Amino acid sequence: MTAYELAERYVGMKEVPGVASNPSILKMLQLDQKWPKGDDVSWCSAFVNYICWQLRLPRSKSLMARSWLAVGRPIDLQDAEPGYDVVILKRGGPNQPGPQVLNAPGHVGFFAGLGGSTVHLLAGNQGDSVSVAPFKTSLVLGVRRLS
Asked: Which residue ranges form the domains of the chain, and what is each CATH number?
């Protein structure tokens, strides 16, 4: 089973509105960090870490999305394949730093495909749920092959 195939099983899992939290998301958040007390924090990296942990793949053990820039080996976006690769995006506007800065806003998910100037990611914390969503390829900081 690939990481993408396992991640697909979680599509539709959502945060719980209000003060309650989805226990599955909380488990992902607390796999490596004990401080998150609710699912209202960014959990895209927690989702990728959790999937990789289940499959014994390399992982960042961090809740920072850009931490994935230091995991696996770099590949070109054009060579990315569903099931094997994660994509790291910048987030927060056009003035965000490049991939050399790991402690900055970002987003991470499993590569789901390319379409023109769009990359599709299967990730957590997309609209407060696990889903496949499109992003501009201009936001891509890096692609990492995990296996």
From this structure: 3-145 (3.90.1720.10)
Strands 73-75 and 85-90: unpaired
Q: How far apart are CA 125 and CA 28, in angstroms?
A: 12
* pTM score: 0.95
- Measure the CA–CA gap between 119 and 124, rounded to whole angstroms: 15
Closest CA to 49 of 69, 66, 35, 29: 29
CA-to-CA distance for 98 and 15, rounded, in angstroms? 30
Tens of pLDDT, residue by residue over 63-114, are 999 999 999 999 999 999 998 899 999 998 778 888 988 889 999 999 999 9
Six-digit token string for 11: 């599509």
